[in-house]
Amino acid sequence: MPAGAAAPGVILVVGDSISAEYGLKRGTGWVALLEKRLAAQKSPVKVVNASISGDTTSGGRSRLPALLAQHKPSIVVLELGGNDALRGLPLGMTQDNLAQMTQAAQKAGAKVLLVGIQVPPNYGSDYANRFAGLFEVVAKANKAAVVPFMFKGVADGPDPTKMFQADRIHPREEAHPLILDNVWPELKKLLGASAGGVARS
Fold first, then answer.
1. DSSP of 104-162, one letter per residue?
2. Is the pTM here over 0.90, yes or no?
3. Active-site option among 125, 126, 159, 167
4. 10: closest CA among 48, 59, 41, 37?
5. Residue numbers of the chain with a pLDDT score lower than 70
6. 170 a catalytic residue
7. What is the pLDDT of residue 128?
8. Which CATH entry fits the domain spanning 10-193: 2.60.120.290, 3.40.50.1220, 3.20.20.20, 3.40.50.1110?
9. Active-site residue 167, yes or no?
10. What is the pLDDT of residue 75?
């Protein structure tokens, strides 16, 4: 390709079971729905879903360099941290891993979108509040985009259990369009700013 020619962008999603369609029919998770939305808009942007059920920020951090080298993404979506909280891992470690991944992606020329999650209140309000806030802390420190709470309208509705599978952790199929709608506004801004991006509402 000639120097200076912009290749169609690649969105690389590095996430855990929520992005890996755990317990869902293939093609019904929010990442697959994102692909369909971009295709409907005739966008040349390609989506690569590198999400693994059970992954932590440490796992994502170790996997990211090879993914960046292989896919050369223009946008990296980081949807990790929930499993860190479920295992009670230190918040500082989660924050550091997210910061390191953000910086690695930016050094590789990608824009970064951090997708935040909140933990149930039974973890204690201090831990829960600090965990919920760390995504915005990392985003602000690294000038990255952030979706503070990907389950807005899913986990905070009048009857949140109906939106989740029996384990009360993984969203049901009908929740995934709402998750995409939470992620889309920030992602659309990045698409509009990236080479090859076509973003309509």
1. HHHHTT-EEEEE-----GGG-HHHHHHHHHHHHHHHHHTT-EEES-TTTTTTSSSSGGG
2. yes
3. 167
4. 48
5. 1-8, 194-201
6. yes
7. 87
8. 3.40.50.1110
9. yes
10. 98
